[in-house]
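To: structure desk
From: M.T.
Subject: fold request, one chain
Message: Could you run this one when you get a chance? Sequence is below, nothing fancy, just the single chain.
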Amino acid sequence: MTQVTYQQTRNNIRADKARYGTWRHAGFWVTFCYRVRRLRKFGGGLWKLLLPLDILLELSRMLVSDTKIPSSMDVGAGLYLPHPTGVVINDSAVIGANVNLFQQVTLGEWHGKSPVLEDGCELFAGARAFGDVRIGSGAKIGANTIIQKDVPANYVAYTDATKMRPRLDVQPDREAG
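Reply: Done. Structure tokens follow.
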């Protein structure tokens, strides 16, 4: 793992804030807490003294959201969490710059591999990606879609809700006549 620098952290926080437009947004605070924790843990030297601030930020983050971004993973600048509730991210996932993650998104490990999200992709509410998958730059993943294979750049992946089949445990209705 490469050392995290103050300049890099400051630039990432600025890019994050630009995506939110305000520092008051709950998603910004989740992202900000991640950036401070990452600087404290991997910045070396005097950054270890940020522990009291890190603890206070973590307590405040817990009040606004149950989403926690593991500090061991690398997240590009401009992460946007419009509804930061229930997002689950594995610590070996990779997230590029300007990525949007909506509520209940899961990036999970499968057989020791985790997803890679390239720059500018979006995962909408309830989307899940597992294992060794790559979601290309600018790709959009629809709500409640499960990704188990690569999605090319600028593609849209979604669940087609119009596919239907009869339930196997119930007899079909017959018209009364």
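Reply (cont.): The chain is about 25% helix and 15% strand. Let me know if you need anything else for the meeting.
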